């Protein structure tokens, strides 16, 4: 099929994320990718400022990751995880336990971030059942959050400003505190309200779930690290399972290996995904403490009631281990600081608000973005962006050069002006 025929078939038959099937948004044909760039038919090579939705931290066609996949293919691509195990899964679990915040030493391998959050919520619910509190079935969280698109995940996303408001009448009704303040804001005032809310609903609550330090697709809002200690204190005071959703923030994105590290706080359960495999294959992991595992195992089922068909996929585990080795053997922290310095140029853009944290840059306009115009303007500057709502943002690969980051800033500026 020619490029035109591929795009025509795509428009008629393929659903894309958050896109109408009857009136689909335009798509562009990618024909290759290497390093920090993707090749778009009719456009050429452009810097991928999105790192494939924040996952391709090492860029594309990295020789170390390519070789890890090839080596594993020579052994096996997949085998069921029920009753069986294999070296790639065991080695990945060992690496994750070694890297994770203290106490997180039990690992469940899921096949996507949303599934990982579902599993984490099940862990909290089953733990409460196993410790004699079956009446605790709700979750405490904060407004502005996003935790995935599957059913229970939607229930802990922002109930009004999020993407899932249309389902509010069908979803479990969770408890929402106010969004944490911006860096430099009044943490004490926010914490007082949050503590009071937790106390009011404590006897109903199984767990507390948040995105630490940075709320992602709910609006790209950073907040002070001190808030993580508040979450830990509230969970301890009321016997809640504290879940940190680090799917977007994990593996260095905010400046520490995990966002939890910024406050020296360990959750009871932590979800990771996205950058786990360097963007090569879909894989997520849910880590929990031995205490959570023991409580869960004492529940009526005696086992964690979840088991994806592709759980522990050897190909994904092998490339994830290679990605973690690549990350930890590199100066990833220096790269994130360097990218952060380059992204400070975004403050020169005349916009409603500009936020930079780690290797994340956000420009918030005072109106909804015209995605088509903004995308086209960025492409003219040699940058691929995917704005949403009133946000134009970047979470680029860590391998981006200083010139790449300057190009990204120029692309965001052009998109802001056009959109």
UniProtKB/TrEMBL annotation:
<feature type="modified residue" description="N6-(pyridoxal phosphate)lysine">
    <location>
        <position position="274"/>
    </location>
</feature>
<feature type="site" description="Participates in the substrate recognition with KAPA and in a stacking interaction with the adenine ring of SAM">
    <location>
        <position position="18"/>
    </location>
</feature>
<keyword id="KW-0663">Pyridoxal phosphate</keyword>
<feature type="binding site">
    <location>
        <position position="307"/>
    </location>
    <ligand>
        <name>substrate</name>
    </ligand>
</feature>
<feature type="binding site">
    <location>
        <position position="274"/>
    </location>
    <ligand>
        <name>substrate</name>
    </ligand>
</feature>
<feature type="binding site">
    <location>
        <position position="53"/>
    </location>
    <ligand>
        <name>substrate</name>
    </ligand>
</feature>
<dbReference type="Pfam" id="PF00202">
    <property type="entry name" value="Aminotran_3"/>
</dbReference>
<feature type="binding site">
    <location>
        <position position="245"/>
    </location>
    <ligand>
        <name>pyridoxal 5'-phosphate</name>
    </ligand>
</feature>
<comment type="function">
    <text>Catalyzes the transfer of the alpha-amino group from S-adenosyl-L-methionine (SAM) to 7-keto-8-aminopelargonic acid (KAPA) to form 7,8-diaminopelargonic acid (DAPA). It is the only aminotransferase known to utilize SAM as an amino donor.</text>
</comment>
<feature type="binding site">
    <location>
        <begin position="113"/>
        <end position="114"/>
    </location>
    <ligand>
        <name>pyridoxal 5'-phosphate</name>
    </ligand>
</feature>
<comment type="pathway">
    <text>Cofactor biosynthesis; biotin biosynthesis; 7,8-diaminononanoate from 8-amino-7-oxononanoate (SAM route): step 1/1.</text>
</comment>
<feature type="binding site">
    <location>
        <position position="146"/>
    </location>
    <ligand>
        <name>substrate</name>
    </ligand>
</feature>
<keyword id="KW-0032">Aminotransferase</keyword>
<dbReference type="InterPro" id="IPR015421">
    <property type="entry name" value="PyrdxlP-dep_Trfase_major"/>
</dbReference>
<protein>
    <recommendedName>
        <fullName>Adenosylmethionine-8-amino-7-oxononanoate aminotransferase</fullName>
        <ecNumber>2.6.1.62</ecNumber>
    </recommendedName>
</protein>
<keyword id="KW-0963">Cytoplasm</keyword>
<dbReference type="InterPro" id="IPR005815">
    <property type="entry name" value="BioA"/>
</dbReference>
<keyword id="KW-0093">Biotin biosynthesis</keyword>
<comment type="subunit">
    <text>Homodimer.</text>
</comment>
<dbReference type="GO" id="GO:0004015">
    <property type="term" value="F:adenosylmethionine-8-amino-7-oxononanoate transaminase activity"/>
</dbReference>
<dbReference type="GO" id="GO:0009102">
    <property type="term" value="P:biotin biosynthetic process"/>
</dbReference>
<comment type="similarity">
    <text>Belongs to the class-III pyridoxal-phosphate-dependent aminotransferase family. BioA subfamily.</text>
</comment>
<keyword id="KW-0949">S-adenosyl-L-methionine</keyword>
<keyword id="KW-0808">Transferase</keyword>
<dbReference type="InterPro" id="IPR049704">
    <property type="entry name" value="Aminotrans_3_PPA_site"/>
</dbReference>
<dbReference type="GO" id="GO:0005737">
    <property type="term" value="C:cytoplasm"/>
</dbReference>
<dbReference type="InterPro" id="IPR005814">
    <property type="entry name" value="Aminotrans_3"/>
</dbReference>
<dbReference type="InterPro" id="IPR015422">
    <property type="entry name" value="PyrdxlP-dep_Trfase_small"/>
</dbReference>
<dbReference type="GO" id="GO:0030170">
    <property type="term" value="F:pyridoxal phosphate binding"/>
</dbReference>
<feature type="binding site">
    <location>
        <position position="386"/>
    </location>
    <ligand>
        <name>substrate</name>
    </ligand>
</feature>
<dbReference type="InterPro" id="IPR015424">
    <property type="entry name" value="PyrdxlP-dep_Trfase"/>
</dbReference>
<feature type="binding site">
    <location>
        <begin position="308"/>
        <end position="309"/>
    </location>
    <ligand>
        <name>pyridoxal 5'-phosphate</name>
    </ligand>
</feature>
